[in-house]
Amino acid sequence: MSQILKDRFGRIHDYLRISVTDRCNLRCVYCMPEEGMEFEPEERLLTFEEIAEVVRVLAGYGVRKLRLTGGEPLVRKNLEQLVRMLSAINGIEDIALTTNAIHFASRAEKLREAGLTRINVSLDSLRADRFSLITRGGDLSRVLASLEAAHRVGLDPIKLNVVLMKGMNDDEIEDFLKLTLERNLHVRFIEYMPIGHDDDGWKTKYISLNTVLERCESIGWQVEAVEQSVRGNGPSQNFRIAGAAGTFGLIHPVSDHFCETCNRLRLTADGNIKPCLYWSDEFNVRRYIGNDQALAELFFRALDVKPESHEMAKALLSEQQSHTPTSRRMSQIGG
Question: Annotated binding residues for [4Fe-4S] cluster, as ranges?
Fold first, then answer.
């Protein structure tokens, strides 16, 4: 390997998040409006072969970890085929999936056999009625069945992504933490982010993740910090309740950003490189596929414009920002 994907701030990028679709079978309140979304026609999505070509080239420049996202990646037909293609690429060591898990249980074994190594499940409530409200129609029992299936086929670690929302699910912090006491689960609380919002309405649901540690203290749990004990933790600040089998993490992009250690690039379902989740910069790869050198140069060009920080904290404080935030919804980017 002659070159690595390093930006002008010295950050090495060995992690690619790949959105395979902008469609989803749910309409989570922080991700999509209930109606009115316009989705990309299927012919505008990158094919599995095109995605694999991009990954093959990037593996030659040090990319080792992949995450398949959406939308909901499992609404893309034959996703197992893509996982198998990616796992066969020399240099790729880790293939993870972020999913709402509604359709995962029936496909867990095939995905594992194809080469899937890890799973993150988006789960914002443990109460069936509230889960249905937040997701606008999701069935909690199907998600819980998928967690059991993931455990059964040997996916490790199993993580739960919980977007914490004031007045909506912040009274369930203790319930989520209790999941880590007996089982080797890893619960990650994520701050509400201003992605794709054209007003300040998101601020009414924003809550600092310091609330989680405060809740532990009020319950009387002894909490210890753990350093990257779970593979793939990335930007999570990680903790364990004394004696617990699992861990919990805090991902706070707004109140305490982790940009200085960012190691990821994003590839959207319609073929755009996004150097940063928050800003609007995008570079389309489609016409460069088949020309390895030109494709690599495009990724280096994207890294050259990647800012030092996403400045979401300024959005929270309504301060002037140095770049233009994206107008795309999280489902259109791939989280």
Answer: 24, 28, 31, 259, 262, 276
Q: Of 98-112, 127-141, 258-272, which range is least confident? A: 258-272
What is the residue whose two structure tokens read 């210890």? 224
Scanning 88-189, the segments in alpha helix (DSSP H) are 108-114, 128-135, 140-152, 173-182
Enumerate domains of the chain plus CATH numbers.
Answer: 15-333 (3.20.20.70)
Detail the residues annotated as belonging to a binding site. Answer: 17, 24, 28, 30-31, 67, 71, 98, 122, 159, 193, 259, 262, 264-266, 276
**Residue 314: what pLDDT?**
47
Q: Is 287 exposed, middle or buried (0-12, 13-18, 19+ CB in 10 A)?
A: exposed
pTM of the complete model beyond 0.85? yes
Classified as helix, coil or strand, 250 is strand
Q: What residue numbers does the annotated binding site for S-adenosyl-L-methionine cover? A: 30, 71, 122, 193
Q: Summarize the annotated binding site for GTP as residue ranges.
A: 17, 67, 98, 159, 264-266
pLDDT band at 233 (very low <50, low <70, confident <90, very high): very low
